[in-house]
Amino acid sequence: MKAEMLDIFDESGTPIGVAPRTEVHRLGHWHQTFHCWIYRVEQSKIWLLFQKRHPQKDTGPNLLDITSAGHLVASEGPADGVRELEEELGLTVSFDALDEIGVINDVLETPELIDKEMCHVFAYACDQPLQAYVLQAEEVTGLLWAELDEVERLFAGDMATIAVHGFLSEPDGTRQEVELRVEQSAFVPHEAHYYQQVFAAVRSLGKKRQAK
To answer: Which residues form the Nudix hydrolase domain (predicted)?
Structure first.
């Protein structure tokens, strides 16, 4: 299979070339990704939708993460990232329909890799019922809603667990509706500033929708 080639950057964000994805992660080169957080406003509450990552993912297996995300390959820009919504969730969305949060640098290190991402982060308000989503089975194994207020309190250390609800996919493709209580350790350990910026931006967007 042909190696996925990514644009790579130095610490200041200046392009320095192109490299295979495996090398990018092995050597810790900065590279670009697309992130989209789906949220909904329900009366006075704002809800964030998390995907559950497949157990065989190279980073964050089995953890709750951004609703939809993926790498931008060499020569691609943020607008190309909307394909991730289609591929992972079966959701057809135009780039213009997304609300831009901004570019957030995020570093995740494990014994196996150094993942330095320049994340092009967006939000999308969507009231579509969960059963309408079509998951990419090798990437995503569930979708779970969490109330933004509670997620923020969890990450601030003010709550030990929070409630999430949605569905998890069985190996045979059937879906099990679930209501769970989860700790912060159930989420991909993005840097604190990443989550803080995302939560603040979604809160602002949600309040604007509530005001309409």
So the answer is: 29-168
